[in-house]
Amino acid sequence: QLPLPPRDGAPVGGLQLDVDRRRAQVYVDGSYAGLVDEFSGYYRHLDLPAGLRLIEIFEPGYEPLTLEIVVPPGRTTTYRGTLTRTPGH
């Protein structure tokens, strides 16, 4: 299920997430896509329309992670990152 369904014939790319909080929620261009764990590991990625995408990753007790990623057509990009605990947690 794609947050943004690609237009018929529009190029599609993949995004694999290597983020330490596997239960964190992933949003693409403002739409819920799933949990980090669903898009992490061999052959597990998020299919997205190619182009610039806004990725937001949320987990309670951690600072949100917001990134702009260019998804290349026909290729899978891997993002590696770490969520930072919010002060007091």
Summarize the structure.
The protein contains no helices and 7 strands. The termini are far apart.
Average of pLDDT: 90
Instruction: Spell the H/E element sequence.
Output: EEEEEEE
- CA gyration radius, whole angstroms: 13 Å
Strand content: over 45%
Please state how the strands of the largest beta sheet are arranged side by side.
3-2-5-6
- Characterize the largest beta sheet: strand count, sense, and whether it forms a barrel: 4 strands, antiparallel
Task: Specify the overall morphology.
Answer: elongated
Q: Report the end-to-end length measured between terminal Cα atoms.
A: 33 Å
User: In total, how many beta strands?
Assistant: 7
Poorly predicted runs: none
State the helix count.
0
Helix content: under 10%
Structural class: mainly beta
Structure overview:
By secondary structure, the protein is an all-beta fold. Helix content is 0%, strand content 47%. It is built from no helices and seven strands. It has a four-stranded antiparallel sheet with strand order 3-2-5-6, with no helix packed on it. It has a three-stranded mixed sheet with strand order 4-1-7, with no helix packed on it. The model has no long low-confidence stretch (mean pLDDT 90).
